[in-house]
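Q: Could you write out the predicted structure for this multi-component system? I'm mainly interested in how the pieces pack against one another.
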Amino acid sequence: MKQTANGLKDTASRSWTPQSWRGYPISQLPEYPDKDALENAYTKLGTYPPLVTSWEIDALKDKLARASRGEMFLLQGGDCAETFDHCTDSHIVKLLKVLLQMSFIMIHEMNIIVVRVGRIAGQYAKPRSKAHERIGALEYPIYRGDLVNAFDVDTELRVPDPNRLVEAYHKSGLTLNFIRSLTEGGGFADLHHPEYWELDFMRNNPYYEEYANMVNSITNAIRFMEGLMPSQLPSLRQVEMFTSHEALNLYYDSAQTRRSPHKSGWYNMSTHMPWIGNRTRDPGEAHVEYFRGIKNPVGIKVGPPCDADDIASLVKILNPGNEPGKVTLITRYGDAEIEKGLPVLIDKIEGQGLKVLWSADPMHGNTYATEDGTKTRDFENILGEIKKTFAIHNERNTILGGVHLEMTGEDVTECVGGANGLNAGGLSSNYQSYCDPRLNYEQSLEMAFLISKLWKEHSGRS
Ligand code: PEP
Ligand code: CO
């Protein structure tokens, strides 16, 4: 939908409340049959303590502003969809471990501070292309993520259940509590032991030696720092981690949107960085109405079909003060489309002087099905889109300041390719995702290593 200059002014002057979105057409929000239960869940969520604080949210916005100037780099990643069953010790530890190790690789190779943002502690809702699916002889409501209904093939369990909104809050709280203990309490201090880095998968790769040397040098540097500054040990052992999710189910996000004492404005306190999906960014609809009123830094997914003028209007609606760090444009055109779409978008956004952080999601434009219908992504296409994105920004003197990946610390077999040579035939051995295919532990580390190499080439720092 096109917005005229007058349209923009109208949007900005319309009054906003955390619930004003309810008066707009909305995509991707399921119909809850039990309205009383829905309103009860909504009210309950509003009484619970916030999951994150306004000062953490503001701190992240400052860091994203720095990333937009090339002074930091955003590493955002995690599951396509978290599930309630995966709210476990081992799943969380493995994701944090791989995110941290990737960030260490980037810090070491790029000589830059890395801002870590998990798709975690609230990434429970999924946009879907159809409302129903046929399994066997029957039609079922589509699975929309654990926030909404169950994955089980069961007509009852597929009905949107408002109690899941409350359960998602509890699971997010448990996840965040554990993240905070691990990252603030020094639980990851042992990461400098080389045995915590699993490297063998790279053995037959031409980069193996370079990679092994780098890991040695990272672990030595951490050990050296610890020896040099024992009194600083507690702070050295702390690492910073932020959370993000797609704010798709606005009942969940708006119920947790509140004011902070002594500050102006409203914060979504369920997460540090909500993002708006590629399918729900129409300026005439409810998601944009909700997003325009919150002070959090926000992500906008941008991929086909999209019009550069529409995205520029959207950026102005969500960031009328042109505040740096407020908007991250997460481009996800796909390896085949990026050269067509991204240059036009960059020229439009930069041409209008709009301050954004450019980040690349090389996952969502590169999904395809194998012959037997398994959803996968090829490591080569993922890397290919990142390479092209770096080159396009480089040609225009703009800065690619972050990446957005679907990944896990588990040894799943969901994406093909990478140094371990997973092929289509191997996908079924440990395919776990209910939604999109993720990079596994090895593919994620390798990706961090290759992204760092690309960054060095393009920043002239190699
Ligand atoms: C996602 O990030 O899981 C997602 C659905 O992305 P997009 O909105 O870019 O399709
Ligand atoms: Co996804």
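A: Regarding packing and overall arrangement: The chain has 13 helices and 14 strands.
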